[in-house]
Amino acid sequence: MRAIVPLLLASTIALGQAPAPQQGQQPPGQQQPPAQTSRAIWRVNLPGGTYELVINAMLGVSSHEYVVDGVARVTEVNVDTTGQFAVRFYAIEPVVTSGPGGIGAATIGKVQSVMTEAAERAGTDAWKKVVKSYPTTTHQRTVEYRVSGKESLNRIFSSASKALRTGKADELSISD
User: Fold this and answer.
1) SS3 label, residue 96
2) Sign of CA pseudo-dihedral 156, 157, 163, 164
3) Of 26, 54, 22, 27, whose CA–CA distance to 41 is shortest?
4) Three-state DSSP class for residue 65
5) I need a labelling partner for 52 at 20 to 30 A (CA). Which of 12, 13, 66, 142 fits?
6) Contact 59, 121 (CB under 8 A)
7) 153 class by beta-carbon count within 10 Å (0-12 exposed, 13-18 middle, 19+ buried)
8) Residue 15 in 3-state DSSP?
C-alpha cells in the first residue's frame, strides 16, 4: 500500500496533471486574492509634527489635569496603545491668583501676551514647543506634543475617542 502512493503521485506528475489542491488552497492557475493592505488610521497634524496610529492598536484615551510646582496647570490627553510608544498631547497655563506685591492675574496675563507677541515678531516659536528638562521630564518611548489650549485638547480627545469607539479612520488638524 505504501508503494502505491508514490507511484500514483509520480504518474500524475508524468501525465502533466497537478495534484488536487488541498483544503484552503487555490486551484493551480488561479491567482490569490490581494492581501488586505488598507488599515484604519487615526492621524493628528500639529504645529510640532504629525502623529499616526493604526486604530486597532488603540487601547484607551484619557484626559486629565494637574498642577506642577504650584505655578503651572497642565491639561493632558493620553492615547494608550499596544505599541512601544506612549503619546501625550498637552497644554500648559499659569496658575495665577495674584502675583507678588498684589499684581493681579490680568496684569500677569498682559505681560505674558506681550512676551508672546515679541517672540512671534522675532521669528521664534520656541514657546510653542514641548519643553523638557533632562532627565527630570524626559521619558523614554514617550512622544509628546504641546498645543496652545484646552480647546485643541478637547478636539484631540474627541477625535481619538470617536476613532477608538467606532474603529473608523479620522484625521484632525490643529493649527495653534
Assistant:
1) coil
2) positive
3) 54
4) strand
5) 66
6) no
7) buried
8) coil
Q: What is the DSSP pairing of strand 142-146 with strand 86-94?
A: parallel
* Cα–Cα distance for residue pair 38/24, rounded to 1 Å: 23
Cα–Cα dist 147/152, whole Å: 7
For the chain, where are the alpha helices, taking DSSP H only? 4-14, 105-121, 150-166
User: Pairing state of beta strands 49-54 and 72-81?
Assistant: unpaired
**Per-residue pLDDT tens for 2-60?**
666 555 555 555 555 555 556 656 666 666 655 555 789 999 999 889 999 999 999 99
Q: How many residues does the chain have?
A: 176
Mean pLDDT of 128-155: 74
Q: What are the pLDDT digits (tens) for 65-117?
A: 988 877 888 999 999 999 888 899 999 888 876 555 555 555 556 555 555 55
Buried b (16+ CB within 10 A) or exposed e, 75-103: bbbbbebeeeeebbbbbbeeebeeeeeee
Question: For the whole prediction, is pTM greater than 0.90?
Answer: no
Beta bridge partners of 10: none
Residue bearing cell 496684569:
107
> What residues contact residue 138 under an 8 Å CB cut-off, 6+ apart?
132
The C-alpha cell that represents 79 in the structure block: 492615547
